[in-house]
Amino acid sequence: MTDLDIVSRLPQDERMLLMPLVRTTSTFWRWAILMVAISLWGAFAYAYQLRHGLGVTGLNTPEYWGIYIICFVFFIGISHAGTLISAILRVANAEWRRSITRSAEFITVLVIGFGAVQPVLDLGRPDRVLNVILNPQPFSPLLWDIMSIGLYLTASSIYLYIPMIPDLARIRDLGLRPRPLYWFLAIGYRDTPAARHTLERIIAVLAVMVIPIAVSVHTVIGWIFALTLRPMWHSAIFGPYFVMGAIFSGIAALIIAMAILRRVYNLKAYFKDVHFNNMGLLLLVMAVIWFYFTFAENLTVWYGGEEAELATLYSKLIGDFAFPFWLMVACCFVIPFALMARRATRNVAGTTVASVAVVIGMWLERFNIVVPTSLHPRVEMSAVHYFPSWVELSIMAGTFSGFILVYMVATKFFPIISIWEIKEGREKSVEEVSERVADYLPDDVAVVES
Amino acid sequence: MARWGMVIDLDRCNGCQACEIACRSENNLAVGGAQAARENRTISWMRVHTEIEGEWPDLRARFVPQPCMQCDRPPCTLVCPVQATTLDREGIVSQIYARCIGCRYCANACPYTVKYFNWRKPFYPESVLTGLNPDVSIRPVGVVEKCTFCNHRLQTARDQARAEQRPLREGDYVPACAESCPTGAIVFGDLDDPGQRVAQLSREPRAFRLQEDLGTQPKVYYLAEQD
User: pTM of the prediction?
Assistant: First the structure.
């Protein structure tokens, strides 16, 4: 009996959710080949940069940081989707989470490496990167960053893996290939009530632990900028602003992933309208908070009226960077707000369009943070400019395609929706939730007083 | 212990850029040529900034030579993840080229934009090769470099004084820019020795430092122009 036969005979949940593991369409292969090609092109561009040095980029004095650092902040931001959202939904006991936590956690674990590698691509001497461990300077925000990203990667990998064990054990018991992989990853788990109880205790503790770690990661990235004396970087709002922006872009990335998965793996019954509606509401809330933070940041700078700060601010509002700035405002606020505030457009298509806008807008926000400040140093400099070179743009394209590729491959080896949690939802939660709601209601006065 | 510093008299500077040239040949600065100029990638540890004030015909040009300010509270050393740039005991902000990983965080943190990055492998035309200074190391591609107050000259001066069995005197140690200035606008020495000219000038009413409000406490002072 082939794996496909085994899976075809299973009941609905297991059949639907394990099918991507055993059946691969030609569309998958076409996309995979395209992604491999773009990734290889990006790898070639990096090899070219290694050979010739950072001179092949468009970077210069004073534009010391460019596309790589923009992508660093952007991708680490995207990685906040998963673990943080999944943890918050678990802690809050939000029952609609069951279909979406796994796909969210996968985004975190798979994208964070692509984000973390960006500063290394940006190094003038990547061969000396280990100096960071050999001669650490504990007051450097870059060092704090390495520690918090390392901790976040470890914690979110564990947080992805532990809730996947019952599914892995089930796949092992079904005997799907590659058998040694599932045998190894299932670490001898047997789905007894005692084992399940322990597992759920561990997940509950992890969910609480990963939240502060996730918050620390993007705070520290904000501090990399905020702890310098540069105009419009040196701002106390940057820590929370970066965390908020990360969650915002993370939610958008998750919605896009859900919309694609729903279509390509025919999971309409699992990623339902209610999921897109709820995620759309989250997106709406974040869009409003984004507007508030952005307004607060820019108003403070404008009202303070310091010369160096104003030069940077005006370049964004009405100067050279007016186009990326106002496009960002449209993508991060106007479009998502207009679409998500109405029930009629909070459907699959509407949330997806809004999410694509938000992802583009959040990339532009990172651009608007890095480039205008870099080009407005406190000392006067003539004729400053920054045009990213083909090398930088190729590496960026390679990073995007690399992430999409590993995510595609991951869906071929692991169920992208948690099977046991769906089952648990069907078997237990309906009853639990009724009990919980009954619990919220006022007690009988006569009983309480006696 | 000495605290090395510099006073630049803006009244005396005539913008001749002899300091830039002296620094260039003393410290083996790479020759970037037209390409580096086009790409905004030139390296010049000492740079004479020209500021045009007023409107035509009431124009006035000011020349402000800017080396590394050798801050007593340098923002650049604090952010370096690998201790490649540090403040040494005599107040000079040094850069270890063999350790620098080229992240350019220090260059971004510097409010004076006086830290330079080697975007390309340093290039020297044939005519320059024979004149390279053996006391100063050639930087590799991909690291940050900066003005060091010619601190290799301090070592030579100290050796000389020791050989002559005498303490270091004013004028024994002078960077190339100060030495080459034809109008004597650049004065160098120990800011903590009240007998030295640099210490006296730095306490003059005309003395100011660039962007003093940032709290970086530079050791390069300027004497304002008198009208």
Answer: 0.94
Flag whether residue A113 sits within 8 Å of chain B, measured between CB atoms: no
Q: Tell me which amino acid residue B173 is.
A: Y
Residues of B with CB under 8 A from a CB of A: 39-42, 49, 51, 66, 75, 78-84, 99-105, 107-109, 111-113, 116-121, 140-144, 210-211, 214, 216
List of domains in chain A: 36-415 (1.20.1630.10)
Locate all alpha helices (DSSP H) within A191-329, ordered by sequence.
193-226, 238-264, 273-304, 307-317, 322-329
Q: Flag if A377 and B75 touch (Cβ within 8 Å).
A: no
In order of A300, A364, A422, the CA distances from A293 in angstroms are 11, 16, 37
pLDDT digits 0-9 by tens, B139-194: 999 999 999 999 999 999 999 999 999 999 999 999 999 999 999 999 999 999 99
* Conformational region of residue B119, where left means phi above 0, alpha means psi within -120 to 50, and beta covers everything else: alpha
Would you say the ipTM is above 0.90? Answer: yes
Are the CB atoms for A7 and A15 separated by under 8 Å? yes
**Cα separation of A72 and A224, whole Å?**
12
The rounded Cα A14 to chain-centroid distance in angstroms is: 27
Fold of the CATH domain B4-223: Alpha-Beta Plaits (3.30.70)
How far apart are the C-alpha atoms of B210 and A379, rounded to whole Å?
Answer: 10
Burial B150-189, CB ≥16 within 10 A → b, else e: bbbbbeebeeeeeeeeeeeeeebbbbbbbbbbeeebbbbb
Residue B79 to residue A142, Cβ atoms within 8 A: yes
In a 10 Å sphere around its CB, with 0-12 CB exposed, 13-18 middle and 19+ buried, how is residue A153 labelled?
buried
Rounded to whole angstroms, the Cα distance separating A259 from A345 reads: 15
Is the bond preceding residue A62 a cis peptide, omega within 30 degrees?
yes
